[in-house]
Amino acid sequence: MNTIQTPHSRNTVQNSHSKQHDLGTLCPSSSASAVSTQSGAVGAELSNRLIPLCDGRPGLRAALPIEALPTPANGDSPSGTPLPVIDFISSSASLDRYDEVICPEGWRLENYRRNPVFQNAHQYGDILFTLGKALITEIRNLPTPHLFQRIEFAVDVNPFARIAYGLYKSKFLNAVSVGFIPIRWENGGVEAGYQRKYVEQELLEVSAVGIPANPEALQLGLQAGAVAKADLQTLLEFILEKTGRRAQTSAESTQSPVPSSIQHLPSSSFPAAATNTNACAPGVRRNGAQLLELARALRDILRRS
Known about the structure:
This protein is an alpha+beta fold. It is built from 7 helices and 14 strands. The strands form 2 sheets. Strands 6-7-12-11-10-14-13 form a 7-stranded mixed beta barrel. Strands 2-3 form a two-stranded antiparallel sheet.
């Protein structure tokens, strides 16, 4: 029989909005685990990991493995060419690096659906980092319960989105990162096989894994033809233009794939970009430094290609 911890020591749990829920309506509970809620235990158990999410509220971020599926036939454009759309199956009840499980049936999707953007590395201060949008975000039950998303990539207007689309489509990237607010969770242990299981959580963010932090994926994607060299060059020039660096001249373009303006690129070259200070993932620098990191990765890959 479950031991339920609540402010009133009753066989119900109380969430942060003061609504009562019966245990077991979402994800099956382990027989020896205790259920905690945001209203009473979040400070003690999770405070060292809470970060401000896109709307300023404290929450968590976690990487989720995904399976990228090809676009169905009815996803073609009126001209008959395939739309830049990929179906993601994510957030199965698998362990992450904290030995935690996110129960798929527990996702609360209403707030995310109001602005279903797909970002890079939880960066929100610049449109360059908006890779696309979710056309569908829902829970599906077959073959097992999972979070399903259909992502349309903004390949026509954003060279960064073209690169991300190629890497996911060709399976050089196989994870996304979610930002969420935990509402209810169970503490486990060795016998349970996990340290914590989230049984109800509010989804706020879905992002590609940090592409600049995966230069090997970019390099392999380029070698395999999943990423076009021209897109890498276009993105590099786009960054230089946005940050006020001198654009590559046509003469430079014929002599070298790397603009001379970025041959020796110091950190001070990029002015601090206006940014939402609540939007950066933990350990990820703000937009100016992120752009610099991306520019350097592109420069190195173009030099080697």
